[in-house]
Amino acid sequence: MEAPTTVTCNARTAEDFHVHALSGARLIEGRCLAVGLVAEQTDSLPTMTCVHKRTDLGLLGVTHAGLNSETDLDDRSVPCGLFRVATHTAACNQAVLVDAFAAVCPDPAQVCTLEDEPAGLFDWGIAVSRHEATRLLENLGLFISEHITPAEDWWARTVTDDAARLVMGRMTLSLLEGTKIGSLWIPSYHNTEANLVRIGGAARSQTWRSPNA
After folding, report:
1. pLDDT digit string (tens) for 47-73?
2. Other beta carbons within 10 Å of 172
3. Are strands 120-128 and 153-156 parallel, antiparallel or unpaired?
4. 153 pairs with which residues across the strands?
5. Within 10 A of 105 (CB to CB), how many other CB atoms are there?
6. Contact 59, 30 (CB under 8 A)
7. How far is Cα 51 from Cα 86, in angstroms, rounded to an integer?
8. Torsion angle of alpha carbons 187, 57, 12, 119, nearest 10°?
9. How many CB atoms lie within 10 A of CB 22?
10. How far apart are CA 59 and CA 154, in angstroms?
């Protein structure tokens, strides 16, 4: 049996949080929720579909049923929270550093396929219609950062002040030095821990646990 790839592990971890990759009609529902919350400053449906085809991820969503840990046998519960994240190649990391990464319409070559191992992750942001979904998706992102991709840096771009406050406060991303378009960044979990130890600070405790752990 082949070892699971990072992308596969991300998908399985998301499912443990009752969060699932959206495709087909669900993808359309999810994008409609995002547009309703942040207007048209979000990825187009073809872009979301392209990223999903390459990664089986792209747009992750939690429904009202999932938020309450309920089974939705008829797949009728509507999305109430979205987490847009993609694993990226080294070329994408370099593009982000020089403000050349097109977040709304990324070059497909900069997005990992299911079999690729990522050089970094890009978080397009969190959009929610229920407050409880915010905390759930925050915890999912932090869990992936610490346990699934601890050696990879995270990048982000936000389109609302609320989103910026969330990722710069709760998720501790900071403005990338030299950026003119508001790119945000946080070093990998491993590098963060090493820096804390080097300067004599206490290492960040791994408190984020999968709900099924």
Report:
1. 788 877 787 777 888 998 989 888 876
2. 13
3. parallel
4. 120
5. 11
6. yes
7. 8
8. -30
9. 24
10. 16
User: Per residue in 144-178, pLDDT tens?
Assistant: 888 888 888 888 887 777 777 777 777 778 888 88
The CA-based dihedral angle spanning residues 165, 170, 172, 176, taken in that order and rounded to the nearest 10 degrees: -20
The number of angstroms, rounded, from the C-alpha of 136 to the middle of its chain's C-alpha atoms is 12
Residue type, 59: L
What does pLDDT average to in each consecutive run of 10 residues of the chain (213 residues)?
73 89 84 76 76 78 89 80 84 89 81 83 80 88 86 82 76 85 85 66 43 45
| Residue indicated by tokens 């099924």 | 212
